[in-house]
Amino acid sequence: MAAACASMPMVSSCDQSKTVSKQPNIVFFLVDDMGWVDSSVQYGDELYPYNLRFNTPNMQRLSEVSAVMGNAYACPVSTPTRTSIMTGMNAAHMGITNWTSPMKDTPSDATGGGFAMVEGKADGNAAEGNVLGRPQWNVNGISPDPDVAYTQYCTPLVRLLKDEGYFTVHVGKAHWAAAGTPGANPYNMGFCVNIAGTMAGMPRSYQGMDRYGNTKELWNDFAVQNLDEYYDTPTHLTEALTLEALKTLEYPIAHKQPFYLYMAHYATHTPIQRDERFVQKYLDMGMDEGQARYASMVEGVDKSLGDIMDYLEAKGVADNTVIIFMTDNGGNSENKQKGGVPHTQNMPLREGKGSCYEGGIRVPLMFYWPKNTKAGKCDVPVTCEDLFPTILDIAGVKSPQTVQEVDGVSLVPLIREGEGVDPLRTLVFHYPHKWKPYDLEDIDFLSSARQGDWKIVYRIASGKLELYNLKEDIGERNDLSGEYPEKTREMAALLGEKLRGWNAPMPVVVSRGEPAPWPDML
Amino acid sequence: MAAACASMPMVSSCDQSKTVSKQPNIVFFLVDDMGWVDSSVQYGDELYPYNLRFNTPNMQRLSEVSAVMGNAYACPVSTPTRTSIMTGMNAAHMGITNWTSPMKDTPSDATGGGFAMVEGKADGNAAEGNVLGRPQWNVNGISPDPDVAYTQYCTPLVRLLKDEGYFTVHVGKAHWAAAGTPGANPYNMGFCVNIAGTMAGMPRSYQGMDRYGNTKELWNDFAVQNLDEYYDTPTHLTEALTLEALKTLEYPIAHKQPFYLYMAHYATHTPIQRDERFVQKYLDMGMDEGQARYASMVEGVDKSLGDIMDYLEAKGVADNTVIIFMTDNGGNSENKQKGGVPHTQNMPLREGKGSCYEGGIRVPLMFYWPKNTKAGKCDVPVTCEDLFPTILDIAGVKSPQTVQEVDGVSLVPLIREGEGVDPLRTLVFHYPHKWKPYDLEDIDFLSSARQGDWKIVYRIASGKLELYNLKEDIGERNDLSGEYPEKTREMAALLGEKLRGWNAPMPVVVSRGEPAPWPDML
After folding, report:
1. Could you tell me if A162 lies within 8 Å of chain B, comparing CB atoms?
2. pTM
3. Theoretical Cys-Cys bridge with A126: which of A70, A131, A163, B307, CB 3.0 to 4.6 Å?
4. Are B219 and A221 an interchain contact pair (Cβ–Cβ within 8 Å)?
């Protein structure tokens, strides 16, 4: 799909005739914070030890008929990926490179630690030389309306689908925008139905007995909405959302209307809490409490996928329903709740959520389009902004009019043929932020790009460039920048060109009062 | 409509052909706690002083083309009316005679005061002779699933409409059931879309700047859900709900599907808070702060009605859209927040919300069915359980299969012709509960029935019967029971027969350990 940038008004009415065509239904099953090796599905060249720790028969079942993308990417954190899917834009292009806070106009960037602060003033602990200040970025996320401060104005994917006749259903986590802006509301994005989607990026609790956080003791902005039916019952959030999703599909199926189900689970984001249905077997396997909790949450998600697949079959619509399975960023390896040894949970990948190393950005992705899928592994690198054109292509939306410039390309040729998308595209990942109140050298202020087997990592805080060959070194252990200075410069130029062209957010170097240099301007 | 009681399974799939028929759209505009005289619309034989205090041009505009029911009734409190509309049953027949608590299995009955207590044990203040204990009632409300404790099992109105091809939209207050039961969830009732409907019977706050209660300081079970977009903006809840309602209508209108919009405003329930758009004029008129706040909330509701009417016209569907305007019980006259003099706010009617005197049960009701309405006043007594068969009749649902026995009758003949419904039906109102922690003699433990111009009031606590002639004495000031003992016995028998036949909840007389007697068994 060619990038489209038009000022034409959005089509807001639907041609009735479109609703009776053979447009496929689409289920976009998006999991939160579940890493590349956190299931029994083999996305890599081999099965890794972590793959063996998870019981995910339904993901396995789906993978057997799917085009399984072995080199699929997302952004290092949630909102950039979710907004990228909704717009087709790279996160750095949108200026949405961090998660959106529930509060309007409020950056979520952490402060403190050794090399970061906010608003151009160094904090007490910072060493003067490498102090970086918070970048200017679109802290309010995306907006379907123009002229909303600190947002990327866009024509949302779902609005285009709705205009094309799709019955569009949102279930679970939205997290595209801050409260008090139009993008916080799934209805503004084009959803016909919204269950539990808000500005929240995590649930207050997964437990029905906790009312998902809706109690005087627990409540905060992340209490999950719309699930009163399950209060005071042992229903895990993942199960409740699945049941609600299936209820909402009854209407479009009965009316023979194509549907788009955006099944965006809150799981497996923190808080890492037991899914009581599954946890015991993992404890019996010898996992620690945190590991067992996490594995039980993954299995809860797996059951949800299976229940949806079973439902589609029972309703007789499975043959005309595309299933897309994806996660929104790498597994979280920087949280004690998950047990185990921090920063190792995505092995063989380096680091995890938040990082522009592979552990933070390489994600599960598979497509099942009945009668249109070349099942098996596909290793062409693809990324989250490709979902926008891909989904529109599947839905038969030929020339979408969008106010934004789309960066992604349709992956339909890969789904159908396993080829037909340029394997040498430059994919860009950008996290010009500080994540936690303490320093995380392999997460904070990183930027990276992949082209073919090569990957450049720009450590903005130190001004250092690293070069890796992913084919030989998926774990990014051997920095080849000294050995291949020319390739390093070439890759830095590719990354720099993209970031500069998008006017990407960059942290401010406090001592100079100006943004940190582009990677090819060091 | 004949009462239907069948064990046949509910029809859960929809015939596509039905969706392209000329079924009218239906907007059911239900206001909360707004009394009979709380608008400029004349429901009585004359305009009363209170009618002059409210600025409601859109209600007026609607009334000019509507069948205006001058003798329309609801239950004394919210849940019984709302569940009655959903089932077609009288509240006493359902055993749902009080509002449902957010907590499952938890009666909302008050305790304390001079003549009431809970669980069969007198409290310290109670005089032994007339101590009444809480009745057994269906404290969890209605349920679309069988075998849920303390519920009335039912085939919900909205499920029948959905099965008939309606796109069904819930906006605002639901309050049919306690949290943790299926009836708490509008999706289970047959709604395709739910905005802000929960087990809550009131909003935590009407103010967008308060996030409608979704803040650490304010939060409780009544914080309103699904409105993140309006957080930290001055958008009044009534306005936010209206905007969301109109968004959801876009889809069925575009797809030429008939829709049922249940626009159930939280206003004008407590908390009585300013609608800043309108409050100043009422202060300028000399109202006290409480009165002005309340009047501004009513005007906010009026604007909502007008905005919806304007939208329907702009979309070209007004000619095929029925509008039903109603409120759920009498105006609240027992709350200091409303200003003025308590227990006078529904003058000329006696008492207010909670009471089986006219002030608690007589409500605004009007119907506008384009090309099918005999506009003008209609004084045949009608009541809330009539809405179920009326709405199904309008929608063309000829022989609905329901698991419950329906008590109401279709009012379509009245809408079309102004006659055709028995004006001498016995209408029954039943509140066998204690409302507040202090005694309210004209509210607590009352039961009443109307037949023609006659009304019997049974004061259960004292065992006293009162008789009124509403035609001559709309204010129920002159008890005629001494003058007309035969008529009193006749009316008591009508009321007793109904209550007994329904096995209606009755409070327990503690000294005897048995239910209070039926009114014809004194």
Report:
1. yes
2. 0.92
3. A131
4. no
